[in-house]
Amino acid sequence: MKITLERNHLLKSLGHVHRVVERRNTYPILANVLLKAADDRVELRATDLDIEVTEMVPAMVSTPGTTTVPAHTLYEIVRKLADGSEVRLETDGSDNMVLTSGRSRFNLACLNPDSFPDLKSGSFGHEFQMPAPALRELIERTQFAISNEETRYYLNGIYFHTVDVSNAGTLLRAVATDGHRLARAEIEAPAGSGGMPGIIVPKKTVGEVQKLLDGAAEEDVKVEVSDTKIRFSLGSVVLLSKLIEGTFPDYDRVTPKNNDKQMTVDRQSFAIAVDRVSTIASERGGKAVKLHANEGMLELSVTNPDHGTASEELPVEFETEGFEIGFNARYLLDIIGQIRSENAIFLFNDAGSPTLVKEEGEARALYVLMPMRV
């Protein structure tokens, strides 16, 4: 193999594919990136056996060929080369690849590409396209609530599915929960997505897709779904991932329907106040903050037996007398951070029941937060 590439093109593509490679691997080949040169382009591919990322890069191919080299090492080398320089990669059939750029020269150990795993895609029953900003918004509004608890593996991702809603038509909905809080966001279902099976996209995949979308403008993302895999195609990048096998819980059952105590508060002022009083909150006590609402005024307070107390008052719209409830301050801030309107609306039932948090107007996102004893 003998090829010449533009350093910036190679770096951008390596930035996309090398992230899925784990730093520690049982199988040495999984630490490598596959390079396959032919027809004036190079295919770069990396996998961790659950996710596979592939990207095509334009190149001047003098001699076609295929090899694998350490992904993170190659990325770091290319990252440190001069901006705009040319990179030459050459193998001679041995177990080494020579990388040269300007006066720099590196010899990298190669592994046989025949042993590089191929994450078979199979056939996809559903295929649709959607704007990159729409998919990014679904992810951003729900990702924070993904559970890290391995025993409940079916919560370790975002649940995507379509729902038919009266007066709104078919919606594509994303849901995540860790048992303490729940995030739900939805958009108008893209053409072709109706009737797709409910799928759970793993947390790592969600993170990789989000990073790809961060560099996208108004491009469309092609999404293909089967019962076991999902494939995202954006520009020259293709990300294939296994799905989490399992049944996502009936989130609608825990979403409050009859919370009748409504509190409206300025989102920014509330977030600053929660952050401020929680400074002295105890991690051992679950970073608990108490909300005491009473006819137009909200008092936030924290009590820490080791450090003292803190309190702050805010004006709110609230007509019920003397209502108290406690929350984990970090969870509360995570949810408030997703509110896009000027005010946040809290809907309470009682101190022991889930609270519903949403934006003003008809925004298609809502959040459920479990209370704490304080």
Automatic annotation (TrEMBL):
Main location class: cytoplasm
Domain of life: Bacteria
Family the entry assigns: Belongs to the beta sliding clamp family.
Subunit note: Forms a ring-shaped head-to-tail homodimer around DNA.
PANTHER family in alphabetical order: BETA SLIDING CLAMP, DNA POLYMERASE III SUBUNIT BETA
Function: Confers DNA tethering and processivity to DNA polymerases and other proteins. Acts as a clamp, forming a ring around DNA (a reaction catalyzed by the clamp-loading complex) which diffuses in an ATP-independent manner freely and bidirectionally along dsDNA. Initially characterized for its ability to contact the catalytic subunit of DNA polymerase III (Pol III), a complex, multichain enzyme responsible for most of the replicative synthesis in bacteria; Pol III exhibits 3'-5' exonuclease proofreading activity.
Protein name: Beta sliding clamp
Lineage per the UniProt record: Bacteria, Pseudomonadati, Pseudomonadota, Alphaproteobacteria, Hyphomicrobiales
Gene name for this UniProt entry: dnaN
